[in-house]
Structure formats: structure tokens, C-alpha cells
Amino acid sequence: MVMRDSEALSVLYGVWGYEVPADSAWCDQAVRAGLACKSGNASLQTLVDQNLPWIASLKVGDKKLPVVVVRVGEASVDVLVGQQTWTLTHKWFESVWTGDYLLLWKMSPEGRVPLRVIAARKRFSGWKRCLNRALHISTEPSAEWRPLW
């Protein structure tokens, strides 16, 4: 099974306890669940130190495969692909992982997020608005997401 990026984000929301359909799983919707979304490129150790699940982009042949990393051990890495858990060798994971990641974390009770996240939102808000209109996606805020448990 190969997941699309939105399916991987839907799985990541699931790890946090939210049931979000793949067609609604976008970073800009994380605030509805009291979460913040961050993406970038980092070392494996940096992400392990954060102790949070994340989406890793694996490059296998000419394909980009997103997986949700839920555990990193000394010899193996557990990832979620859809509803399946795969255990990969640490060596193989590091050989195909691009270093790209996307993660979610719980915002402070005041709903604060780091300034760099706010700056990125402002920079891309115009582009997002145009893309949403082109794809006929509503930009109106809707109800808050609630955890399953």
C-alpha cells in the first residue's frame, strides 16, 4: 500500500486521537484540534529527541512514499502505512529517508504557536486562498475537531 500525503496526515491525526478524512487532512486545519503543524528537514536524532510521531518522506526508486514514524529503536523503526504497522531496519530507513518531516504538536493552553509558524502562515495565506478557490475548497472555518476518546 502506498499513501498519498493527505492520507499520511490523516493517519498522523489518528495517532493524536482524531479521526480526520484524508480529504480534510491539511496542516492549516490542525488548529481545529488544538494542534500546530511543522514541516522541514532535520536529522533523525533531532526528531527522536522531540519524542513525537512524524511523517517521513522515503525515496524508494523514483517514488516518494510518506510514512508515519511512531517509534525509533536502536536497530529498527516502526512506521504506520494506512492501518498497517511496518518494522523497518534502522539502516534501511536512514538510506531511503530524505530528512523531510511533518509533525503535529499540542499548542499551549493559550493557543500560542512559535513566531516562525505565524510568519509562515502569513507568507503563504494568499497562495493558499488562490489554491483553495481553484480547487473549490471552502475557506470558511468550521466546527472544532474533538478527540475520539
What does this structure look like?
The protein is of the alpha+beta class and 149 residues long. It has a single domain, classed as Cysteine proteinases (Cathepsin B, Chain A, Alpha-Beta Complex), CATH 3.90.70. It is built from four helices and six strands. It has helices spanning 5-15, 44-50, 90-96, 115-134, and strands at 35-41, 54-60, 63-72, 76-81, 84-89, 97-106. Strands 1-6-2-3-4-5 form a six-stranded antiparallel sheet. Strand 4 (76-81) and strand 5 form a beta hairpin. The two termini are 28 Å apart. The relative contact order is 0.20. The model is unreliable at 114-123 (pLDDT under 50). This is General secretion pathway protein A. Residues 12-105 form the General secretion pathway protein A peptidase C39-like domain. Pfam families: GspA_C39-like.
The proportion of strand residues reads: 25-35%
The total beta strand count reads 6
Oligomer class: single chain
One letter per element, helices H and strands E, the order comes to HEHEEEEHEH
Cα-to-Cα separation, first versus last residue: 28 Å
Mean residue pLDDT:
81
Domain count: the total is 1
Biggest sheet: strands, sense, closure? 6 strands, antiparallel
| Fraction in helix | 25-40%
> How many individual helices?
4
Biggest β-sheet: strands ordered side by side in the sheet: 1-6-2-3-4-5
Helix/strand-derived category reads: alpha+beta
CATH architecture: Alpha-Beta Complex
Poorly predicted parts: 114-123
How is the CATH topology named?
Cathepsin B, Chain A
Fourth-tier CATH superfamily name: Cysteine proteinases
Radius of gyration: 16 Å
CATH class placement: Alpha Beta
Assign an overall shape.
globular
Protein name: General secretion pathway protein A
InterPro entries: GspA_C39-like
Organism: Escherichia coli
Domain General secretion pathway protein A peptidase C39-like: 12-105
